[in-house]
Amino acid sequence: FGPDAKEAVPALIELLQRPDQDTHVLGEAIQALERIGPAAEAAIPILQDLAEGRLYSGAFAREANPALNA
Q1: Model-level pTM?
Q2: What crossing angle do the helices spanning 23-36 and 9-16 adopt, rounded to 10°?
């Protein structure tokens, strides 16, 4: 991972937008975006939604917050 994986960002965003997605997969997608870092800036809006509990009843707020600061 890291910045070299920035091509994966659109697919990871798509995973986060699917309410039927397995929670483990969602958590892994958030962590992947965190490891990609600034190159994943396109994911900021959905990570903010997750961090503020607007998606999935706030279940991923703890994971989304560090990803926003990556």
Answers
A1: 0.76
A2: 150
- Cα separation of 70 and 68, whole Å? 6
CB contact at 8 A, 56 and 25: no
Q: What is the 8-class DSSP label of residue 69? A: T
DSSP letters along 17-66, please? T-TTS-HHHHHHHHHHHHHHGGGGGGGHHHHHHHHTTSSGGGTTHHHHHH
Question: Could you give the angle at which helices 44-51 and 23-36 cross, rounded to 10 degrees?
Answer: 130
pLDDT of the chain, 70 residues: tens digit per residue: 678 899 999 999 999 888 777 888 888 998 899 899 999 999 999 888 887 776 665 556 566 666 666 5
Q: What are phi and psi of 50, to 5 degrees?
A: -65, -45
